[in-house]
Amino acid sequence: MRKELTRTKQALSNESIQRIIDTTAYGVLSLNGDDGYLYTVPLSYVYTGGAVYFHGSPRGYKSECFQRTNKTSFSIVGQSQVVPTVRANNFQSVLIWGRLHIVTDIAEKLSALRALAEKYSRGIPDNEEEIQHSLNYVFMVKLVPDWITGKRAALEVRGAAEKL
User: Fold this and answer.
1) Cα separation, 73 vs 31, whole angstroms
2) Which of 99, 143, 153, 163 could join 52 via S-S bond, C-beta 3.0 to 4.6 A?
3) Are 55 and 140 in contact (CB under 8 A)?
4) φ/ψ (deg, to 5) at 61
5) What gap in Å lies between CA 8 and CA 13, rounded to an integer?
6) How far apart are CA 159 and CA 153, in angstroms?
7) Distance between CA atoms of 135 and 137, rounded to whole angstroms?
8) 65-120, pLDDT tens digit by residue?
9) C-alpha span between 42 and 61 (Å, rounded)
10) What is the mean pLDDT of the chain?
């Protein structure tokens, strides 16, 4: 069930969407929680090979929620700037809808862990040692996108932000 952007003039280009995905440190994943509550959790991630990868402990509430349904959305805010003169936010954001899959293939998990290390700890000498150490116990999930959209603030908000 895809919803199109209502304000199509605010849509981000594919290049801007990819830049936000590649450079932003975290996003917020929506999961099915207990008793009909949604559970949203901020997560570090990496986008590689056409999928978004998350890692964590194989135990705990987040892991339980990962296994309830595979449909989800992941929100990334690439920019947020309050513009008081127009009572608005000069923002850029990306929303990824898709399906979660638990990663069990060791080669895929290894590749994703290396990509995470490259994104978050580039140049740290013991990255490979830590990756090899955690490979067998880390819980890895990938989000395979069904569609991705990006949106930015309205033109008048962006214009007012430039004057700040």
Assistant:
1) 8
2) 143
3) yes
4) -60, -45
5) 11
6) 10
7) 6
8) 887 889 999 999 999 999 999 999 999 999 999 999 999 999 999 999 999 999 99
9) 14
10) 92
In the numeric block, the tokens 């998350």 are attached to 54
Helix, strand, or coil (residue 88): strand
Q: Tokens 């304000």 — which residue?
A: 7
Contact (Cβ atoms closer than 8 angstroms) between residue 149 and residue 7? no
Q: Which residues of 12-40 are buried (b: 16+ CB within 10 A; e: fewer)?
A: beeeebebbbeebeebebbbbbeeeeeee
Bridge partners of residue 73, in order along the sequence = 30, 97
Task: State how far the alpha carbon of 121 is from the alpha carbons of 40, 56, 113, in Å.
Answer: 25, 16, 11
Question: What pLDDT does 1 receive?
Answer: 55
Query: What is the structure's pLDDT at 148?
Result: 95
CB atoms within 10 A of CB 140: 22
Helical pair 106-120 and 127-134, crossing angle rounded to 10 deg: 140
**pTM of the shown model:** 0.90
Written as six digits, the tokens of 27 are 């996003």
Q: Which of 3-7, 11-15, 92-96, 116-120 has the lowest mean pLDDT?
A: 3-7
| β partners of residue 129 | none
